[in-house]
User: Which sequence fits this backbone?
């Protein structure tokens, strides 16, 4: 590689850094007293902590709800084969959907599944055939792997998002401290 070939990309990087710096300088700046800055810092930390806790609890509740729903269906389930539905109307022909139909005890059911397969295995609760989903989806959601991954991955992601939001807010809006105050580096 010749040195001249990297020059355009270096110029683009410098231009991008310059634009990003200009953008961050245009962020509205709030002037407060020293006590005001400390109060804003305390309030911002508490708000970010509250948002983190609420988002984490909501996600964990959703994962556990999916787990209980899947386990309830898989506890006593039957399996039906769903086939793509025929397009009955002009609108169905113009707007293709992944609509599949299957029947249980002579009663037809239809659902939209996100798949490219020609047939889909559907697990349904024998007591309430209206409660159903794809078999592989229910097996995954009913496993402890789904619960562990849903909590182990989501909660740290929310923590990083709240932490980064707090650092951005304090550094660029209120002009308090340095990035290292929030990232723990000296």
Assistant:
């Amino acid at each position: 590689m010749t040195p001249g070939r990297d020059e355009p990309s270096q110029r683009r990087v410098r231009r991008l850094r310059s634009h990003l710096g200009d953008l961050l300088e245009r962020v509205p700046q709030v002037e407060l007293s020293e006590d005001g800055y400390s109060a804003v810092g305390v309030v911002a930390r508490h708000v970010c902590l509250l948002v983190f806790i609420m988002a984490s609890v909501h996600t964990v509740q959703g994962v556990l709800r999916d787990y209980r729903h899947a386990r309830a269906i898989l506890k006593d389930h039957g399996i039906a084969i769903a086939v793509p539905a025929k397009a009955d109307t002009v609108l169905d022909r113009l707007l293709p959907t992944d609509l599949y139909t299957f029947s249980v005890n002579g009663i037809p059911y239809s659902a939209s599944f996100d798949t490219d397969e020609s047939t889909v295995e559907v697990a349904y609760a024998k007591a309430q055939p209206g409660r159903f989903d794809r078999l592989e989806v229910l097996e995954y959601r009913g496993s402890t792997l789904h619960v562990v991954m849903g909590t182990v991955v989501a909660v740290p992601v929310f923590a990083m998002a709240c932490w980064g939001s707090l650092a951005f807010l304090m550094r660029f809006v209120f002009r308090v401290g340095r990035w290292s105050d929030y990232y723990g580096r000296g």
